Amino acid sequence: MRREIPIAITFIVGVVFAVSYFIPREPFSEFESQFGDWFGIIAAFAIWLGAMNLMKISIVKIGRKSPDYFYSILIIVSFLMIVFFGFFEGYKGIYADPQFSYRDAGTGFNWIYEYIYSSLSATMFALLAFFVASASYRAFRARNLEATLLLISAFFVMFGRVPIGDMLTGWLPDGYTMSGWANWIMSVPNTAGQRAIMIGIALGLVSTSLRIILGLERSYLGGE
Amino acid sequence: MKRTELVVSSLIVVALMICKFLLPKPLLFSPLVSTIVTILIGCAFLVIFILTVKGKPIERRIVFLVVGIALVFPFFMKVELPIRISPEVQQVYDKMSSLPAGSKVLAAFDYDPPSAPELQPMADAFMKYAFEHDFKVIMMGLWPQGPQQANQSVEAAWAYNPQWMPDSADEKVYGVDYVNLGFQSGNEFVILRMGESFKSMFPADLYYTAYDSVPLLKNIHNFSNIDWGVNFSAGKPGTVEWVQIAVDRHNLPMSAGNTAVQAPMAYPYLNAGQLIGLMGGMAGAAEFEKLTGHTGKAITFLLSQTYAHVAVILFILIGNVAFFLNKKEKK
Fold first, then answer.
1. Assigned fold of B87-295
2. Which positions in chain B touch A128 (Cβ < 8 Å)?
3. Rounded to the nearest 10 degrees, how much is the dihedral formed by the CA atoms of B58, B60, B63, B65?
4. pLDDT in tens, B22-71
5. Is ipTM beyond 0.90?
6. What are the extents of the domains in chain A?
């Protein structure tokens, strides 16, 4: 039964979603709504599950004094701090007059969000620019046809996406400037490539979904 | 370059950045100083080129330093850049400007702070334009951080025109002119359910006000009551999911603003007419700011991005020229 029930649920939900796409009428639309609500509830629980799992892993790391366990302490402290401010100010906001959200300007939660979380995450993302530049200098070589095509496209798109490209090629007829070439690359070869990838992914998804719905693919249940 | 020299140079770059944001009066280079700085950066690349060709490639830390300089020094330069409007950004603006006052606009903020440098300028310009033209804005997020980014764009609009702030003459009233529905978990299922009923996914707004008690939401049941949708997206769930469900199944007219990395994935939808325009990255944001007339961070920092792009292109060229010259010598 531990396998049969999940397979039956998967089959029913999968068939209802597939049918309701083509027949958006009762009773399928009602079923779709119900299952959509279930999904929302499961997704909300999954957030908690993820958070609890993170806590468990971090606590185990600290207990074992694993390498870099200091970062696990940071994770737990940050997590508890955010949870405290979120719940405390959220609760306070409900009963305040006028009501306010824990995310509003002036709250502790918002202060942490704007001045710690935003700054740190933006910094991490910004570091990419430095690593991209380093990789471009050390590794991006026109070693074969594919790499050369990629390099030429990168050259046109990077120049075409900033004003200097048009400043340098502004004397050319409209459409032949750097931005014109960048737009052409994005609209024609890029779109063609993206469509090929999307269609490929869609076909793969359809076949995998069918295998899951029909119970042929059971790896999501664990084992097999 | 010695380690101490590297550290000192890096500290100077960091100090300059701090100066930029802490000085009460903006520090700006004169055109002459700007030209000299640009020439010096060019000379640095010339030295890097010579060293690389000689088979002495520069170490990674110097690459970082050069990129840092190329990014930071333009903060202090005053150069008017000619921004050419791309057809995809023009489409967004044309759609937005065709909407009459009172139009109901759904704005989905599906991004978090790491992507904010690219997406927040678009969102800010959109919000200022929306308030200026009396659109009724319904904000929401499929990412937990989205509603907070939405609030930041409202604050940006207030900073632009303090008359829109609460208790001001031309106040934009929360719940009447705009509303923040907050975040709902469930990714594309949220969009799917919103197709039938917004209320089912957002029984209350961000401030715990029941859906039916918000005046702006009185006659809004699903996508058929929305005049235009705009999605600021940095990944999944984002533009792709909105197009596949809200646009394809419920015919919501929709435009999108994406990060530069994500924008190429949205082009197939643009060319198929499923998306009405697309703003890609900071360049797209700068074009949008120019069209709306609300100069913001995108236009201000576009010069930095220009220098960074040129720096990366030069690094690629130098690396490849050296690669081919060395290959020739070996033969």
1. Rossmann fold (3.40.50)
2. none
3. -120
4. 776 777 788 888 889 899 999 999 999 999 988 888 888 889 989 988 98
5. no
6. 1-66, 67-139, 141-217
Taking the C-alpha atoms of residue A178 and residue A155, their distance in angstroms, rounded to an integer, is 10
Interface of A with B in 79-98 (CB under 8 A): 93-94
Whether residue B319 and residue A137 make contact (CB cut-off 8 A), yes or no, is yes
Summarize pLDDT for B179-207 with one digit per residue, the tens.
999 998 888 889 988 988 899 899 999 88
Contact B131, B161 (CB under 8 A): yes
Q: How far does A165 lie from chain B, in Å, by closest CA?
A: 9
Please count the residue pairs, one from chain A and one from chain B, whose beta carbons lie less than 8 angstroms apart: 169
CA angle A147, B278, B155 (to 5 degrees): 120
pTM of the model: 0.87
- List the domain boundaries for chain B: 3-79+300-330, 87-295
Stretch 234-293 of chain B: residues touching chain A, C-beta under 8 Å:
249, 260, 263-265, 267-268, 270-271, 280-281, 283
d(CA A189, CA A146): 13
B305 shares contact with chain A (CB less than 8 Å):
yes
